[in-house]
Design brief:
Elements lengths: L5 E10 L1 H13 L4 E6 L6 H15 L3 E7 L8 H9 L3 E5 L18 E4 L3 E5 L11 E2 L1 E6 L3 H12 L4 E2 L23 E9 L3 E2 H12 L3 E5 L7 H12 L3 E7 L6 H8 L2 H7 L2 E5 L3 E2 L3 E4 L2 E5 L5 H6 L1 E8 L1 H16 L1 E3 L2 H5 L3 H18 L3
Parallel strand pairs: 2-3, 3-4, 7-15, 12-13, 13-14
Antiparallel strand pairs: 1-8, 1-10, 2-5, 4-9, 5-6, 6-8, 10-11, 10-18, 12-16, 14-19, 16-17, 17-18
Helix pairs in contact: 5-6, 7-12
This protein binds SN-glycerol-3-phosphate.
Protein name: Phosphatidylserine/phosphatidylglycerophosphate/ cardiolipin synthase family protein
InterPro entries: PLD-like_dom (IPR025202)
Pfam families: PLDc_2 (PF13091)
Length: about 375
């Protein structure tokens, strides 16, 4: 499902935690009415402690603070931290806590990442409140202002007040939340829309990407940490490359938090390379960012291109259709391509047997997981 395209927004690209963390913390510190946060990962540590302190400070100023965490992704949040949040007045809810009634239901996770301040300013990207995001992982976020923020707020409110979310925070807290779209004087705003998905039931992010892959005319650059593309996406990428589009993938190198996922995706490299797709593996650290560029269209947010994101998770991305923002994202891609190792098709075709065996092994596991519903 997706929201409407809305004009008059401002989007600011925030590559790397050194940029987006201070910007987000400053926004929370300046909040006057409300702070809404929705995260997949939150684990006790330095970042979670700093976040808890900022949220409690906001409550002390009279701000209404709502924190919606995934019931699985927040399992690493210690009881003492949960107590600090509750005692500090933060309304806390958990999406779909693990249960024994239906094991398959446990696969549905809230993977979205969102911070909204005063209904006027929002942030999304691939971030979470775990220490890896401080400096170990490469991540990207976007700061959003304008009419599209209201769509993010509505998305948050629906999940907060849904039967799948539980916890001490009252469901009714989201009723009557204030929205305050900010306008910038003399600024020609950008076009954007929110796109979301719920596993195999709603796949708007995937359909939107497929459409762009099939209609791109010049460039199609995709960055994703977990690249296990479906047959349809692989075919569309190959076709785009064959019709002359500059198709490039920016993927993690050997530094990876789930190496098995990397091997599962690498089994598709050969065919993509033969079709003319260029593949870059990022070297400095683990690249966890999720953003795509097709001509002047950008999609950035929580969605990976693996079966977890496409079949089970709740996901949400910000789409932007604007040449100025696209130029910024292209610049970011270029810098990251320069820090990557490009896979040479000839060398790849002569890779060792052990590598091929791992691709087969993890590929088989992945194919088996795909069948779970
Ligand atoms: O699921 P992501 O993309 O937020 O990444 C978090 C990793 O799964 C943690 O291992």
């Amino acid at each position: 499902m997706h929201g409407m395209w809305r004009d008059g927004n401002h989007f600011e690209l925030l590559p790397e935690a050194a940029l987006f963390l201070p910007t987000m913390f400053e926004a929370v510190d300046q909040a006057r009415h409300s702070v809404l946060i929705e995260l997949y990962l939150m684990e006790s540590g330095r970042l979670a402690t700093a976040l808890i302190e900022a949220l409690v400070r906001a409550v002390e100023r009279g701000v209404s603070v709502l924190l919606l965490l995934d019931g699985y992704g927040a399992m690493g949040l210690a009881t003492v931290d949960r107590q600090r949040l509750e005692e500090g007045g933060v309304a806390l809810r958990f999406f779909n806590p693990l249960g024994v009634q239906s094991l398959v239901r446990n696969l549905t996770r809230d993977h979205r990442k969102l911070v909204v301040v005063d209904g006027a300013e929002a942030f999304t990207g691939g971030f979470g409140a775990v220490d890896e995001f401080l400096d170990a992982w490469y991540e990207v976020a976007v700061r959003i202002e304008g009419p599209v923020v209201a769509d993010w707020v509505r998305l948050f409110c629906r999940l907060w007040d849904s039967p799948m979310s539980r916890g001490p925070g009252r469901a009714s807290l989201v009723r009557g939340l204030e929205l305050a779209a900010r306008q910038r004087e003399g600024y020609r705003g950008m076009r954007g829309r929110v796109v979301w998905g719920q596993g195999y039931r709603y796949q708007a992010i995937r359909h939107s990407l497929h459409h762009r892959v099939s209609t791109a005319t010049e460039r199609l650059w995709i960055c994703t940490p977990y690249f296990v593309p479906t047959f349809t996406l692989r075919r569309r990428l190959a076709r785009a490359a064959r019709r002359g589009v500059d198709v490039r993938l920016l993927l993690p190198g050997e530094v990876h938090d789930h190496p098995g996922v990397r091997y599962a995706g690498q089994r598709f490299y050969g065919r993509l390379l033969r079709a003319g797709v260029r593949i870059f593996e990022f070297q400095p650290t683990f690249i966890h960012a999720k953003f795509s560029l097709a001509d002047d269209w950008v999609s950035l947010g929580s969605c990976n291109f693996d079966h977890w994101s496409l079949q089970w998770n709740l996901e949400a991305n910000q789409e932007v259709d604007d040449p100025r923002f696209a130029a910024e994202v292209a610049g970011l891609f270029e810098r990251n391509f320069a820090s990557s190792r490009e896979i040479d098709p000839e060398t790849w075709s002569r890779r060792p047997r052990m590598q091929r065996f791992r691709e087969w092994l993890y590929g088989t596991l992945d194919a088996w997981l795909t069948r779970l519903r």
